[in-house]
Amino acid sequence: MYEKVSIPEIFGMNVFNDHMMREHLPKPVYQELKKTIERGEMLNSSIADIIANAMKDWAIERGATHYTHWFQPMTGITAEKHDAFLAPPTNGRAIMEFSGKELIKGESDASSFPSGGLRATFEARGYTAWDCTSPAFLREDAGGVTLYIPTAFCSYTGESLDKKTPLLRSMEAVSKQAMRILRLFGNTTAKKITVYAGAEQEYFLIDRELYKQRKDLIFAGRTLFGAAPPKGQELDDHYFGNIKERVACFMHELNVELWKLGVSAKTQHNEVAPAQHELAPIFSDCNTATDHNQLIMEAMKRIASHHGMACLLHEKPFAGVNGSGKHNNWSLGTDDGQNLLDPGKTPHENAQFLVFLTAIIKGVDKYADILRLAAASPGNDHRLGSSEAPPAVISIFLGDQLVDIFDQIEHGEATSSIQGGKMRVGVNTLPYLKRDATDRNRTSPFAFTGNKFEFRMPPSSGSISGPNFVLNTIVADVLEEFADHLEKAEDFNQAVHDLIRDTYIAHKRIIFDGNGYSKEWRMEAERRGLPNITNTVDAIPALVTDKAIQLFEKHHVLNRLELHSRAEINYEAYIKQINIEAKTMIDIASKQIRPAVIKYAGSVAQSMAAMKAVGGDTSVEEELLRQINENMKLFHEGLKYLEEVEGQAQLLQGSSRSQAVFCRDYVLAAMEKLREPADKLEMLVDEEVWPFPTYAELLYNI
Predict the structure, then answer these.
(1) Residues in domain GS catalytic (predicted)?
(2) pTM higher than 0.85 for the full model?
(3) What is the reported pLDDT for 175?
């Protein structure tokens, strides 16, 4: 039954936001906390007890019994340990307490989370530290109400073990360097630069009962077997199509929960593939947006079960239909209300905008390999480079207007900007439409879209922390270089013009506005010297090059030890994911597909014998059995080979990289070799006998 809601009444009701802080905190304490949040000043620990008590009272008023330090370890998901607001009882009566110490710092077993060798098994201590720039919130579910406190996570020796810490460090780095550029352009009012982000989240919804019958979906998140259905996405009838009522009910409940959490869920629609959908929020600061995206993914999975569905966030859950990505929209803004990536009506005259734009162009070109790594995952390897997602080659789309301006600058001075004008549709009752100055390019991995960049490569299941802290750091690095140069300039205006021109000429190889899917572009990209990193294993080394270590250490985002640990964690995650998929394939093939095919072949043989006994024609049965036997032989050979190479992968000694390379080159190839005859057998065996739901059932039973 549809629940009528008022967005203004419920929005942020479960968040200890600015309104709640004003209401529950003494004015001096509120002002001190705001200084920390807005200006990045050090938190005054003397007020922590007051804040903690106010937060506790607010949470208990709303029914909370527990609190948790909510953090984002290198597992790719979030982690939490719940503690009750309970102090030692007095005279048999419960006392509810929450101290400033408990708010600011928590403790967890650091050796139980991925550390890439930073922590040994016996070295257990790790700390969670309150991130007051991301508001605390209440989560309501069947288990009750819990106060969630966003935190960073570090080891006993101080290294970052999470995804939040480098993001916060990178935001400070880009703010510091961007402020230097602003001051040179005469801005004396801004005190801080904010990184803004908005992540468009794609996902699949399938029937939960069917999901529970697929071991591959349960263990691997994607289908490891499955023949193409009679109908896929070829009719283009799902994108922006009518939202089915069952899905709409899910979306409504999801929106309500997210609005209560202060997540500005705005856009929802059907995506290209059957059973695929998208949710997009309004922009917010990068740190909050990252936390919100984690909440969105968690809520999607939980709420889907309320409606008898399962939510799939894997990048390629079904072969042959579009996979899911997460478009990361990124921009920079000042605390005095200026969007630094807004070109204005005459961008050729907007030197400040062109300086920031040129810095981004240089940063993306210079550090393309690191940016590519930020979008790498085993699941994304199945998606990137096909005709549904950006190619693995990093390039930038600027559009006709900006390319024309840079062309003018390269050959002299920019004197004009291409304008969009108006467009007449050709029907008198329809209004004139304002035409943008440039078209969009869906094949570009990094596209300028009016007043922001859209990084289209990130994986749907991943955190947006990685792409954003890399973007922040590479832009901070170039802005620092620009500021160092311009601060010494005798003629500032001429220096700006020359800097824009020279930087564009040196890095224009990264600009490409054409079809990123074409073979011609891959050849052209190679001619230009642009890297084409097609898989995660080849992307990981970018983290530990001298260039990367110098970049991240220089801006205090990650040190050498932290970078090497993250490379190791990425290798381990890749190896483990492929191992899980291979073992799941072996399990399904041995225990489900093989017995089902043998049983069906036996029934066909019995039918053929009965037909022969009465003198009937058995040519159809004979042909069917021949095809089954041929594919069953290939299936058996493929299964034995997969078992062999999977065992070899487990026995490999030496570096994690060599094991990851083996998994990529041999285990994945063996999995494909096994899948091919299995999918052919699916088309030969009676669907009543086939041991698990088919693509047709999964994609069209909602």
Answers:
(1) 163-593
(2) yes
(3) 97
